[in-house]
Amino acid sequence: MHATGLALSVCFPEAQRRPISGQKLVEAVLNASEMMIRLSIVTNRHWFDYGIHPTGSFGVFGGVCALGKLRGLDTMQIVHALGHAGSMSTALTAAFEDGTSTKNLHVGLAAANAFRAIALAEQSITGPTAVFEGKFGWYRSSVQTEDERHYERVTTELGQEWLTEHIATKLYPVANPLMPHIEATITLRDKYQITPDQVAGIDAYIKERSFLTL
To answer: N or C: fewer beta carbons within 10 Å in the chain?
Structure first.
C-alpha cells in the first residue's frame, strides 16, 4: 500500500486549481492515507493473493476522502462519491503475469477516478451507500471467500489513533523487490570502490511472487 503517493497525486492537482493552506493540504493527505490503510485491513489476507493491487484499488476511496475535505463537501455528498468510487476501484495485478505496463498506471487512474467520483456527487448524482459492506459491496464482490471481515477497523478510534504513523518511507523510488539489490550494490561500491565501467553485468534474483520482467 503506497498511501501517500496516491494522496499527493490527488491533493497537489487540487492545490493548483485554487489556494489551499498548508494545514488543509496536510490534513487532506493524512485523511486519504488513513482511509486507504484502514480499508486494507478489513481482512487479514494478502491482497495480492486475490490478484488485487491495494494501492490502485483503495486509492480512489482515499482520494475521494481527501477531495471531499478540501472542497468542503457534506457527509452525504462524500457517501455518494464513495459509492461511485466503488465502481471505479478494482486494480488488477494481471500485468504482473506478462510484465506489461498497466500496473504502473494504477496510482494515476485512482487519482483521476477520485476526481470523477467527486464531480458526480457534486452534481447530485447518487451512489450506493453500502458500497463496502453491502450484499453486492466492494468486499463481497472483490473477495469471494468466506474470510472473516472486520468492518469496524475502518472507523474504530478514527481521528484518535493514526495508523498512518506506522507506515514506512520508501528508501528508493522502485518496487520493494529491488530494494535489497540497491542496498547490496551500494555496499559493494563503497567497500571495494567499484565504478560502473568495471561492471560487466549483474544477476539479480527477485522473489517468486514478484512481477515478470521483460
So the answer is: C
Taking only the tens place, the pLDDT of each residue in 32-78 is 999 999 999 998 878 888 889 999 999 999 999 999 999 999 999 99
**Sign of the Cα pseudo-torsion (139, 45, 103, 60, in order):** positive
134 contacts 87 by C-beta, under 8 angstroms: no
Report DSSP state, residue 211: P
DSSP for 103-163 reads GGGHHHHHHHHHHHHHHHHHTT----TTTTTSTTSHHHHH--S-----GGGGTTTTTTS-G
Contact 32, 10 (CB under 8 A): yes
Q: Please count the other Cβ atoms lying within 10 Å of the Cβ belonging to residue 148.
A: 9
DSSP string, 60-85: HHHHHHHHHHHTT--HHHHHHHHHHH
Q: Could you identify the residue written with the cell 472483490?
A: 142
**Tens of pLDDT along 130-155?**
999 999 999 999 887 777 889 999 99
